[in-house]
């Protein structure tokens, strides 16, 4: 099992249609440009005095600097330019500490700066459209891969989108999820864009965890998964019945707008990371027939190992990612064409083939 683009759509409502979020090479003068644009912003009288960040922050602006531009600090009578800078700061915070978390916990990775500016300064009708959902899933896959390969606990950091992984697990497993009221959504306004997602249940309601404590929570947690039975997994949490019972008035249209991308095998791209969308290995999650002999990876092994470690500061990544950024434009040409419904007997055959190989 694994999170897929279908989960991204239903849980987060992020668009899949749009350009891949490949790496954008940022010039050496990014700091001067950023401070020049934000230095012209006047704050409210109650805000703390504005401070610039030092040139030693070569990876990107620090978090404390971003937080100087909170919505509460917008002055009365602020210009459109000043509001745009506050929006840009919020988008940087959202990307760095919700969507694309990384080990650089104290600053915004500088490669995200152009994307935030596109949103803040571009005309609404001409704002570049990016595949935010594919980028979030790529970052999460990368974070999972990195975490699973760590051999020591000196740096227990999970990158990507922890929120996506948490919501995905809550929907499918009873292990580790909080107790929550599952009554239908109320007081949501659904229009052409806005509306709840399936993940709104876990974000908007009060919840509680069990009061039983253990000193060995991680081994206990793993042990519960080891004995998890097939019939204890919620394989299809987005069925018509499940959606209707949770959201009688409907979900945000973004939850299903890009459904044609859910079965694409095109590589997912975020920054310098390229990940395979191996949806052909988890077709049961989509209620489809699972083939026993699954196709091999379409991604060359060396591409999956792209890393900044050991690279020069001025390394140009955009040309190296161009091939995979371009491939996303043809994502709908690489869709898994499986129309047969799930079959328990075929699933048993698949498990007997799969388990000895893991």
From TrEMBL:
One of its GO terms (biological process) is meristem maintenance. It comes from Paspalum notatum var. saurae. Residues 1-354 form the Aminotransferase-like plant mobile domain. InterPro entries: AminoTfrase-like_pln_mobile, MAIN-like. This is Aminotransferase-like plant mobile domain-containing protein. It comes from the Eukaryota. It holds the Pfam family PMD.
